[in-house]
Amino acid sequence: MAKAELFQKEIPKSERVFYYESEEDDPIQTKEQEKKEKVGLPDGYEFIPKNIFVRMYSAGLFRIFWIFGQWYERRYWGVKVHGREKLKKLKGKGYVMYANHTNPFHDVFGPAIAADRRIFTIISPVNLKVPGIGKLLPYIGGLPLGSTREEKEAFNEAVDKRLAQKKCLVIYPEAHVWPYYTGIRKFPAGDKSFKYAARNDLPIMTMTTTYHKRKDFGKGRELPRMEIYLDGPFLADASLSEDEKRAFLAKKAEESMRKMAKHNTYEYFEYKKKGKK
To answer: Most-buried pick from 5, 150, 189, 208 (CB within 10 A)?
Structure first.
């Protein structure tokens, strides 16, 4: 079934089952994902544009993106955000937000409406090839991972600069999208994705999307609505080594997201491990 169809229309219950071997399996494969190892960044790619007009265009486009996201999230998915008051503790400093990865459309807009400032999201370079929106992603905050040494250095410099500018960096540590999944999977990269907060001595937040029945459930409207739970901030002791900070933050994030995932009340998709009855 095409990727978009999974998230934008009702699916018969008999088709809403995924069989997996490990939590690192990718239930949804697209042509772009299959080619991702071959996708690199354009020559001379700028993670932070130098041209003032490009920066102005980016700021304006993000505003339009944010306004549309407010309408889309609340109108289409019935989103409610809990715990936004916790962001008041982050005034005057940048932070990193870790979120569960369960809906590619919501995962683009959800953090933008949940956060209290402009967001920048770490993405795969393959996303730049997505028809239509791919070329716009860098202007609305997408930070594609580099593959060469020069690209990685430029990427890290850009991340550190955005955090120094007191922005919000968004990361999906589960890596792959599992449609409407109500649990929290292990992070394939372990605590590596927590290095950005660790090396900058900054706090992290978690954003956990949960699923619930709609009021008109059973009347041809079984697609779930969403509720977002923010938790944190969590900050590692400055006296710890960078490795110890990463481990501490990774543990806090996983514990927090598993705790918030308990708010799920509706399983729209069912996940079954292969060979397990």
So the answer is: 208
User: What is the mean pLDDT, run by run of 10 residues, along the chain of 277 residues?
Assistant: 54 79 71 55 88 95 95 93 96 96 92 96 87 86 91 95 97 92 92 96 98 75 90 96 97 97 94 77
Residue listed under structure tokens 């953090």? 111
The residue count for the chain: 277
Residue 183 belongs to domain spanning: 13-273
Instruction: Give φ, ψ of 276 to 5 degrees.
Output: -110, 125
Asked if the structure places residue 259 within a domain, the reply is yes
Closest CA to 138 of 228, 219, 70, 65: 65
Among 151, 146, 123, 152, smallest CA distance to 136 is for 123
Q: With respect to residue 225, please indicate whether it lies within any of the assigned structural domains.
A: yes
The secondary structure of residue 47, as a DSSP letter, is S
Split into its structural domains, the chain has a count of 1
DSSP 67-90: HHHHHIIIIIS--EEE-GGGGGGG
Q: Token pair for residue 212?
A: 């619930």
Q: How far is it between the farthest Cα atoms of the chain?
A: 59
Query: Does some domain include residue 184?
Result: yes
The domain that holds 194 is classified in CATH as 3.40.1130
The rounded distance, in Å, linking the Cα atoms of 170 and 122 is: 6
